[in-house]
Amino acid sequence: MSRIGRMPVVLPNGVDVEIKGSAVRVKGPKGELSHTFPASMVISQEDGVIQVNRPSDERTQRALHGMTRALIQNMVSGVSAGFEKILEVNGVGYRAELDGKNLVLYVGYSHPVRMEPPAGISFEVDQKIRQIKVKGFDKQGVGQVAADIRMIRPPEPYKGKGIKYLDEKIRRKAGKTGKV
Questions:
Q1: Whether the predicted pLDDT of 139 surpasses 80
Q2: DSSP 8-state secondary structure symbol assigned to residue 41
Q3: Rounded to whole angstroms, how far apart are CA atoms 79 and 94?
Q4: Is 69 helix (H, G, I), strand (E, B) or coil?
Q5: Lowest mean per-residue pLDDT among 79-83, 89-93, 160-164, 174-178
Q6: Which helix (H) or strand (E) holds 141?
Q7: Do residues 52 and 65 lie in contact, with contact meaning Cβ atoms separated by under 8 Å?
Q8: What tens digit of pLDDT does each residue of 59-72 get?
């Protein structure tokens, strides 16, 4: 049996879950998420714990089992605690600012790049250490917005200039060498 799929999802205080067939709606202090899962997965809730079961041991059912449980866990932890990704801006003259809710990036283009946050996502900028925090209750949304910000100016391998994740390691290349 799937190790992840058979683990129960414990509901923290303040989180309400509504299960209708294969649709799950999770509501908490940070927001509300809903998702429709494959109809073959059996999702049940009792005593503040959500359990996911599968009908058979077929390969596709085993894969869906763990994925379904992981998505439900992400929904529950998102509406209760939230998620964040931290990006770092490196480069001479590169900086990030907030203009109201919008993120404004000055990263070597002839114009500033503006990003408007989607619903449920917020930005925080620390200009002293050049960090951008992307926060929200939807794990997939936070990751996608962070990836979109990184793609505005990905880090380059020679000087390391660009926008990178905080824990990302950039493989550096040697520059040109003189004549020998």
A1: yes
A2: S
A3: 34
A4: helix
A5: 174-178
A6: helix 139-152
A7: yes
A8: 999 999 999 999 99
What pLDDT, on the 0 to 100 scale, is given for residue 179? 73
E strand map for the chain: 9-10, 16-20, 23-27, 32-36, 42-46, 49-53, 83-90, 95-99, 102-106, 113-115, 121-126, 131-136, 162-165
Model confidence, pTM: 0.89
Do 89 and 54 share a domain, yes or no? no
Average pLDDT estimate for 161-172: 95
Token digits of residue 149: 């910000």
Are 36 and 103 in the same domain? no
Residue keyed to tokens 């391998």: 157
- CA–CA gap between residue 56 and residue 128 (Å, rounded): 55
Q: Which of 36, 60, 80 is the last residue of a domain?
A: 80
Stretch (H or E) spanning 70: helix 59-80
**What domain range includes position 119?**
83-165
